[in-house]
Design a protein that fits this description.
Elements (H helix, E strand, L loop, with lengths): L11 E7 L2 E9 L4 E6 L14 E5 L7 E24 L8 E3 L3 E19 L5 E23 L12 E16 L2 E12 L13 E10 L2
Antiparallel strand pairs: 1-2, 2-3, 3-4, 5-6, 5-7, 5-11, 7-8, 8-9, 9-10, 10-11
Length: 217
């Protein structure tokens, strides 16, 4: 996950602010510096001549203690694998509100913005060090499957056995990534997929979950 462009300030096209206006730039990493090229409108359709590029390179030898701090961001569609280790279910007839932590997995599809804050600092002996802080924000939809316990308590005494039933889950999710850690909140609905679905007290009822994820793109 650490090698994913999602967590590294990799070469590519980003948004940033130049002279107070939102502009697109191209970032190029080399062994000892990072170059930022300003892209003019229409660059996607017309080739850019090298003489037209406005280039800014970090670090600079004439820098003060903090050379610069700039924010760059990218937007795009996001595909993740999520698990919801904790679900909070509101109270139901004859049963109090509860937390559950059963095995489940879901596919997440959403739209994501990744923000990179680039800074360079000079240490006491004059060496310059690059620091990049990253976070991402995403919102979208989930769908997946999980196990849920079935017994007399959650079926209003409709069955007299205990087993784990398969449930289909769907909902919306708000995900945030800090460096290489991803977490978020899910609002979803579960549907039991066997013949006891009409007895299950949580059939089609909403829950609130804590999600953690693995990025696929």
């Amino acid at each position: 996950m650490k090698d994913s462009p999602k967590f590294n300030f990799a070469d590519g096209v980003y948004y940033t602010k130049l002279d107070g206006k939102r502009e697109q730039v191209y970032v190029e990493n080399t062994d000892d510096s990072i170059s930022i090229y300003a892209l003019k409108k229409g660059w996607q359709h017309a080739p850019i001549k090298p003489s037209q590029l406005v280039k800014q390179t970090y670090p600079q030898k004439t820098a003060v203690e903090t050379i610069g701090a700039n924010k760059y961001w990218q937007k795009g569609f996001d595909v993740d694998i999520l698990t919801i280790p904790i679900k909070f279910r509101p109270s139901a007839p004859t049963f109090p509100k509860q937390f559950s932590n059963h095995l489940n997995g879901a596919v997440y599809l959403g739209y994501r913005t990744d923000v990179y804050r680039l800074a360079f600092e000079k240490d006491p002996i004059g060496r310059i060090h690059e620091k990049t802080k990253h976070y991402g924000i995403s919102a979208g939809f989930i769908t997946g499957f999980g196990l849920t316990p079935l017994n007399s308590w959650v079926t209003n005494n409709g069955i007299n056995i205990e087993y784990d039933g398969l449930a289909w889950s769907k909902g919306i999710a708000f995900i945030m990534g800090l460096e290489n850690f991803t977490f978020g909140l899910v609002g979803g609905i579960d549907h039991l997929l066997d013949e006891n679905k009409h007895l299950w007290i949580y059939q089609g009822k909403p829950y609130l979950g804590l999600a953690v994820g693995l990025n696929l793109n």
